[in-house]
Automatic annotation (TrEMBL):
This is F-box and associated interaction domains-containing protein. It holds the Pfam family FBA_3. Signal peptide: none annotated. InterPro entries: F-box-assoc_dom_typ3, F-box-assoc_interact_dom, F-box-like_dom_sf, F-box_dom, SCF_F-box_component. Gene3D superfamilies: 1.20.1280.50. CDD domains: F-box_AtFBW1-like. It comes from the Eukaryota. The lineage of its organism: Eukaryota, Viridiplantae, Streptophyta, Embryophyta, Tracheophyta. It comes from Striga asiatica (Asiatic witchweed). PANTHER family: BNACNNG10540D PROTEIN, F-BOX PROTEIN CPR30-LIKE. Residues 7-47 form the F-box domain.
Length: 406
């Protein structure tokens, strides 16, 4: 092999796969053979699987913004280190900044992050949004592609999820609309949207969900009249089949169930269940369940704290919660250690957390550095400023016939 006469290609690839992304980007300039290997889809997949241990959790928080005398919510994003053996502390939390410009009265909205690839859409403050532009963005390699726009019947009642099919190495976006029996699917491999139809109307949504086990998940109400009974609605990314999944049972009989939190722990789906006793005014219990098998659930932990809202679970089994501290009006993100029953502050108590509502933080899957999109060849220059009609860039993507290395 050019540039490495004493190493077999297999050993050379093994060494490269353990390097960080920024080092690999610099090594592409060493020789043509190195550039070909590093930019190849098989190496991208192998590098991704080799570095699964080094990931962060992408968090979203809504903040009020004043524009022309009006207040509307915008989202800000944080990255939280997620290690198996390292306890969380305040140094683990950092902001995620967008290098893009947006039209007035709009703001970016992250749908989810998978394999280092972030799905971003745009939200309009005035709710007049006939079509929705999407972008797939890898901040590590600074590459993004703008997708074909999609026109929806009821765009402001639509809910989006982002997923990945490892059998075809394809990233997909699915958009559902409440009250309409249709769905739209985007495939990165084909760079096109397809419309499909359901055999019934989608119920009202409580929140978007998470991607785990090859399936997207949405939290929905069982019917239009009863807004206290929920189901999980799943979409298998490979087979493109929808299914209903029952949520965990109530942990106690004498309680009301508040809206669940749906998130991910590793490759498993996790549900945070908020229960309030009928007999206690301020009592609140959070029970964390992990999905096992087909429709089964295993109880992980339980905490009773009326002033803490569950966000997600870390690999070291600590919980991330939005915590109000007694004696002051401040609140911030905290790590909860279930075995010690102790909170550790992650977010400084200041006026910054006070700008958002308590409990208004969501987990958007793990995020890790990757080479995804490095094998995409833009046929035009990606736009750095989004508009409602010009955000279209065709891409030519090389798809491997088989994942992994031969």
């Amino acid at each position: 092999m050019e540039g490495s006469p004493y190493l077999s290609e297999d050993l050379f690839v093994e060494i490269l796969a353990r390097l960080p992304v920024q080092s690999l980007l610099r090594l592409r300039t060493v020789s043509k053979s190195w550039k070909t290997i590093i930019a190849g889809p098989k190496f991208c997949s192998f590098h991704l699987s080799t570095n699964r241990h080094s990931s962060k959790i992408l968090l979203a928080a809504k903040y009020p913004k004043q524009v022309s005398g009006r207040t509307y919510p915008v989202e800000r994003y944080l990255l939280l280190d997620n290690h198996h053996h390292r306890p969380a502390d305040s140094s683990c939390l950092s902001p995620l900044d967008f290098p893009f410009q947006y039209p007035l009265f709009t703001s970016p909205h992250i749908v989810a992050s998978i394999n280092g690839l972030i799905c971003v859409s745009v939200r309009a403050a005035n709710k007049v949004q006939p079509n929705i532009p999407f972008m797939l963005w890898n901040p590590t390699i600074r590459r993004h592609v703008c997708l074909p726009e999609i026109t929806l019947t009821k765009p402001n009642y639509s809910y989006t999820e982002f997923g990945y099919d490892p059998t075809t190495d394809d990233y997909k976006i699915v958009v559902l609309t409440a009250g309409i029996p249709e769905f739209n699917v985007y495939s990165l491999n084909s760079n096109a949207w397809r419309r499909g139809f359901l055999d019934h109307r989608i119920r009202l949504f409580s929140s978007t969900g998470a991607f785990a086990g090859g399936k997207m998940h949405w939290l929905v109400f069982k019917d239009f009249q009863n807004n206290t009974d929920y189901w999980l609605y799943s979409f298998d990314v490979a087979t493109e089949v929808f299914a209903e999944v029952a949520l965990p049972p109530k942990d106690r009989a004498d309680t009301f169930i508040y809206p669940h939190v749906v998130t991910v722990l590793g490759d498993s789906l996790v549900v945070g269940q908020a229960l309030k006793s009928k007999h206690v005014m301020f009592g609140m219990t959070w029970t964390i369940w992990e999905q096992i098998g087909a429709g089964g659930w295993k109880k992980l932990y339980r905490v009773e704290d009326p002033m803490a809202a569950f966000v997600c679970v870390l690999k070291n089994e600590e919980w991330v919660m939005d915590k109000i501290y007694f004696g002051c009006s401040d609140h911030g993100l905290a790590a909860y250690e279930p075995k010690a029953s102790e909170f550790k502050l992650l977010e400084p108590l200041s006026s910054f957390p006070q700008q958002r509502k308590f409990g208004d933080v969501a987990s958007l899957n793990d995020h890790q550095q990757s080479l995804v999109l490095l094998d995409c060849t833009p046929l035009g220059d990606p736009h750095t400023c989004w508009s409602w009609s010009s955000c279209q860039v065709q891409i030519k993507r090389k798809t491997p016939s088989a994942l992994g290395r031969n």
